[in-house]
What does this fold into?
Amino acid sequence: MSGFRPGVALTLISLGAVAFFCSLGVWQVRRYQWRTADLAQKSARIELPPVSLDDAARAPEDLMFRRADSRGRFELADTVLVGGVEHGRDIGYRVLTPLRLEGSADDAPRVLVDRGFIPLDQAQRFLPPDSGTGDPIEVHGLVLVLAVPEAQHGSRERRETYFAVWNPDRPKRVQAVVDQLPYPLLPVMLLSIEPEPGGLPIGEPAKPVSPVDHRGYALTWFTVAALSLGAWVEYGRRRARELAAE
It folds into this structure.
Protein backbone atom coordinates (compact mmCIF):
# COMPACT_ATOMS: atom_id res chain seq x y z
CA MET A 1 0.00 0.00 0.00
CA SER A 2 1.86 3.08 -1.28
CA GLY A 3 -0.36 5.43 0.73
CA PHE A 4 0.51 3.82 4.07
CA ARG A 5 4.16 3.59 5.23
CA PRO A 6 4.34 3.59 9.05
CA GLY A 7 7.60 1.65 9.32
CA VAL A 8 8.27 -1.75 10.85
CA ALA A 9 9.48 -0.59 14.28
CA LEU A 10 6.55 1.76 14.89
CA THR A 11 4.12 -0.88 13.64
CA LEU A 12 5.39 -3.44 16.14
CA ILE A 13 5.31 -0.93 18.99
CA SER A 14 1.86 0.41 18.09
CA LEU A 15 0.20 -2.97 17.61
CA GLY A 16 1.81 -4.22 20.81
CA ALA A 17 0.41 -1.20 22.68
CA VAL A 18 -3.05 -1.71 21.16
CA ALA A 19 -3.04 -5.37 22.20
CA PHE A 20 -1.90 -4.43 25.70
CA PHE A 21 -4.56 -1.74 26.18
CA CYS A 22 -7.27 -4.05 24.81
CA SER A 23 -6.20 -6.79 27.22
CA LEU A 24 -6.57 -4.31 30.10
CA GLY A 25 -10.03 -3.40 28.83
CA VAL A 26 -11.07 -7.06 28.60
CA TRP A 27 -9.73 -7.63 32.13
CA GLN A 28 -11.86 -4.76 33.44
CA VAL A 29 -14.93 -6.19 31.67
CA ARG A 30 -14.34 -9.52 33.39
CA ARG A 31 -13.87 -7.74 36.73
CA TYR A 32 -17.15 -5.92 36.15
CA GLN A 33 -18.93 -9.21 35.49
CA TRP A 34 -17.42 -10.74 38.63
CA ARG A 35 -18.26 -7.66 40.70
CA THR A 36 -21.86 -7.62 39.49
CA ALA A 37 -22.34 -11.26 40.51
CA ASP A 38 -20.63 -10.64 43.86
CA LEU A 39 -22.81 -7.61 44.66
CA ALA A 40 -25.95 -9.53 43.70
CA GLN A 41 -24.96 -12.33 46.05
CA LYS A 42 -24.31 -9.93 48.92
CA SER A 43 -27.57 -8.08 48.29
CA ALA A 44 -29.46 -11.37 48.48
CA ARG A 45 -27.94 -12.08 51.90
CA ILE A 46 -29.75 -9.05 53.39
CA GLU A 47 -33.05 -10.91 53.06
CA LEU A 48 -31.79 -14.03 54.87
CA PRO A 49 -32.45 -14.68 58.59
CA PRO A 50 -30.12 -12.94 61.08
CA VAL A 51 -26.89 -14.60 62.20
CA SER A 52 -25.09 -14.41 65.52
CA LEU A 53 -22.05 -12.18 65.96
CA ASP A 54 -20.02 -15.22 66.98
CA ASP A 55 -20.77 -16.93 63.67
CA ALA A 56 -20.06 -13.70 61.78
CA ALA A 57 -16.70 -13.29 63.54
CA ARG A 58 -15.70 -16.84 62.56
CA ALA A 59 -16.54 -16.36 58.88
CA PRO A 60 -16.65 -12.62 58.13
CA GLU A 61 -16.39 -12.85 54.34
CA ASP A 62 -19.05 -15.55 54.03
CA LEU A 63 -21.56 -13.69 56.22
CA MET A 64 -20.90 -10.16 55.01
CA PHE A 65 -24.18 -8.21 54.61
CA ARG A 66 -26.14 -10.73 56.65
CA ARG A 67 -28.35 -9.19 59.32
CA ALA A 68 -27.29 -9.54 62.96
CA ASP A 69 -28.76 -8.34 66.25
CA SER A 70 -26.79 -7.42 69.35
CA ARG A 71 -27.55 -5.94 72.75
CA GLY A 72 -25.28 -4.02 75.08
CA ARG A 73 -24.07 -0.55 75.99
CA PHE A 74 -22.26 1.93 73.76
CA GLU A 75 -18.77 2.97 74.85
CA LEU A 76 -19.70 6.62 74.34
CA ALA A 77 -16.26 7.90 75.36
CA ASP A 78 -14.79 6.17 72.30
CA THR A 79 -17.18 7.61 69.71
CA VAL A 80 -15.64 8.77 66.44
CA LEU A 81 -17.26 11.02 63.82
CA VAL A 82 -16.41 10.35 60.19
CA GLY A 83 -17.01 12.88 57.43
CA GLY A 84 -18.16 14.99 55.91
CA VAL A 85 -20.46 12.59 54.12
CA GLU A 86 -23.61 13.12 52.07
CA HIS A 87 -27.09 11.94 52.98
CA GLY A 88 -29.50 13.05 50.31
CA ARG A 89 -28.97 16.80 50.12
CA ASP A 90 -27.52 17.06 53.63
CA ILE A 91 -23.87 17.03 54.67
CA GLY A 92 -22.81 15.58 57.99
CA TYR A 93 -21.03 12.72 59.72
CA ARG A 94 -21.24 8.99 60.32
CA VAL A 95 -21.15 8.08 64.00
CA LEU A 96 -18.94 5.11 64.93
CA THR A 97 -19.15 3.77 68.49
CA PRO A 98 -17.95 0.46 69.98
CA LEU A 99 -20.68 -1.61 71.66
CA ARG A 100 -19.90 -3.63 74.76
CA LEU A 101 -22.01 -6.74 74.42
CA GLU A 102 -24.38 -7.64 77.20
CA GLY A 103 -22.80 -9.97 79.76
CA SER A 104 -19.26 -9.63 78.37
CA ALA A 105 -16.12 -9.16 80.47
CA ASP A 106 -14.25 -5.86 80.78
CA ASP A 107 -11.47 -7.06 78.46
CA ALA A 108 -13.77 -8.77 75.96
CA PRO A 109 -13.78 -7.56 72.34
CA ARG A 110 -16.35 -4.92 71.47
CA VAL A 111 -18.22 -4.73 68.18
CA LEU A 112 -17.80 -1.46 66.30
CA VAL A 113 -21.15 -0.03 65.20
CA ASP A 114 -21.76 2.45 62.40
CA ARG A 115 -24.76 4.04 64.08
CA GLY A 116 -25.74 6.12 61.07
CA PHE A 117 -25.82 9.70 59.79
CA ILE A 118 -26.10 12.98 61.69
CA PRO A 119 -26.30 16.49 60.17
CA LEU A 120 -23.44 18.92 60.68
CA ASP A 121 -25.38 21.03 63.15
CA GLN A 122 -25.95 18.00 65.40
CA ALA A 123 -22.29 17.04 65.74
CA GLN A 124 -21.92 18.63 69.17
CA ARG A 125 -24.52 16.24 70.62
CA PHE A 126 -22.48 13.20 69.64
CA LEU A 127 -19.00 14.31 70.62
CA PRO A 128 -17.50 11.74 73.01
CA PRO A 129 -17.62 12.52 76.74
CA ASP A 130 -14.52 11.98 78.85
CA SER A 131 -15.93 8.71 80.16
CA GLY A 132 -19.10 6.70 80.46
CA THR A 133 -21.32 4.26 78.64
CA GLY A 134 -24.81 4.55 77.27
CA ASP A 135 -28.06 2.96 78.36
CA PRO A 136 -28.78 -0.63 77.30
CA ILE A 137 -29.65 -0.72 73.61
CA GLU A 138 -30.39 -3.31 70.96
CA VAL A 139 -28.72 -2.83 67.60
CA HIS A 140 -30.08 -4.31 64.40
CA GLY A 141 -27.52 -4.11 61.65
CA LEU A 142 -25.73 -5.60 58.68
CA VAL A 143 -22.44 -7.43 59.13
CA LEU A 144 -19.39 -5.81 57.53
CA VAL A 145 -15.83 -7.12 57.54
CA LEU A 146 -13.53 -5.05 59.75
CA ALA A 147 -9.85 -5.24 58.83
CA VAL A 148 -8.65 -5.47 62.42
CA PRO A 149 -4.84 -5.15 62.53
CA GLU A 150 -2.51 -7.43 64.47
CA ALA A 151 -2.23 -4.82 67.24
CA GLN A 152 -5.59 -5.54 68.87
CA HIS A 153 -5.88 -2.37 70.93
CA GLY A 154 -4.10 0.71 72.21
CA SER A 155 -5.07 3.26 74.85
CA ARG A 156 -7.02 6.49 75.27
CA GLU A 157 -3.89 8.57 75.87
CA ARG A 158 -4.09 9.98 72.37
CA ARG A 159 -7.60 10.49 71.07
CA GLU A 160 -8.99 11.85 67.82
CA THR A 161 -12.65 12.69 67.51
CA TYR A 162 -12.86 13.25 63.75
CA PHE A 163 -11.63 11.18 60.83
CA ALA A 164 -12.03 12.59 57.35
CA VAL A 165 -11.79 9.17 55.69
CA TRP A 166 -13.02 5.80 56.91
CA ASN A 167 -13.05 2.41 55.23
CA PRO A 168 -13.51 -0.80 57.24
CA ASP A 169 -11.66 -2.74 54.51
CA ARG A 170 -8.43 -0.75 54.94
CA PRO A 171 -6.18 -1.88 57.83
CA LYS A 172 -4.55 1.56 58.15
CA ARG A 173 -7.93 3.27 58.57
CA VAL A 174 -9.02 0.72 61.16
CA GLN A 175 -5.66 0.95 62.92
CA ALA A 176 -6.18 4.67 63.51
CA VAL A 177 -9.33 3.87 65.50
CA VAL A 178 -7.92 0.79 67.26
CA ASP A 179 -4.89 2.77 68.47
CA GLN A 180 -7.11 4.83 70.78
CA LEU A 181 -9.18 1.98 72.21
CA PRO A 182 -8.18 0.18 75.46
CA TYR A 183 -9.86 -3.05 74.34
CA PRO A 184 -9.90 -5.23 71.19
CA LEU A 185 -12.53 -5.19 68.45
CA LEU A 186 -14.24 -8.09 66.73
CA PRO A 187 -13.20 -8.68 63.10
CA VAL A 188 -16.70 -7.62 62.04
CA MET A 189 -18.68 -4.43 62.55
CA LEU A 190 -22.39 -3.64 62.33
CA LEU A 191 -24.01 -1.10 60.03
CA SER A 192 -27.17 -0.04 61.86
CA ILE A 193 -30.29 -0.38 59.71
CA GLU A 194 -32.68 1.71 61.79
CA PRO A 195 -32.65 5.13 63.50
CA GLU A 196 -31.94 5.24 67.21
CA PRO A 197 -34.56 6.45 69.72
CA GLY A 198 -35.03 10.16 69.09
CA GLY A 199 -34.34 9.84 65.37
CA LEU A 200 -30.56 10.35 65.37
CA PRO A 201 -28.25 8.91 64.23
CA ILE A 202 -30.15 7.82 61.12
CA GLY A 203 -29.35 4.17 60.58
CA GLU A 204 -30.79 2.62 57.43
CA PRO A 205 -30.28 -0.42 55.19
CA ALA A 206 -27.54 -0.01 52.61
CA LYS A 207 -26.95 -2.06 49.48
CA PRO A 208 -23.41 -3.18 48.71
CA VAL A 209 -21.74 -1.08 46.04
CA SER A 210 -18.59 -1.46 43.99
CA PRO A 211 -15.60 0.58 45.17
CA VAL A 212 -14.32 0.65 41.59
CA ASP A 213 -16.00 1.77 38.34
CA HIS A 214 -14.91 -1.19 36.22
CA ARG A 215 -17.01 -0.11 33.24
CA GLY A 216 -15.38 3.32 33.27
CA TYR A 217 -11.91 1.79 33.39
CA ALA A 218 -12.77 -0.62 30.56
CA LEU A 219 -14.04 2.24 28.40
CA THR A 220 -10.86 4.20 29.16
CA TRP A 221 -8.54 1.36 28.10
CA PHE A 222 -10.50 0.61 24.90
CA THR A 223 -10.47 4.33 24.07
CA VAL A 224 -6.70 4.51 24.57
CA ALA A 225 -6.31 1.45 22.33
CA ALA A 226 -8.43 3.09 19.62
CA LEU A 227 -6.46 6.34 19.85
CA SER A 228 -3.18 4.44 19.62
CA LEU A 229 -4.41 2.60 16.54
CA GLY A 230 -5.64 5.85 15.01
CA ALA A 231 -2.31 7.57 15.69
CA TRP A 232 -0.45 4.69 14.02
CA VAL A 233 -2.68 4.88 10.91
CA GLU A 234 -2.39 8.65 10.68
CA TYR A 235 1.39 8.54 11.05
CA GLY A 236 1.63 5.86 8.36
CA ARG A 237 -0.37 7.94 5.90
CA ARG A 238 1.55 11.13 6.64
CA ARG A 239 4.88 9.36 6.26
CA ALA A 240 3.73 7.88 2.95
CA ARG A 241 2.86 11.36 1.66
CA GLU A 242 6.24 12.70 2.78
CA LEU A 243 8.10 9.85 1.05
CA ALA A 244 6.06 10.34 -2.12
CA ALA A 245 6.85 14.07 -2.10
CA GLU A 246 10.58 13.32 -1.87
Notes: The radius of gyration is 26 Å.
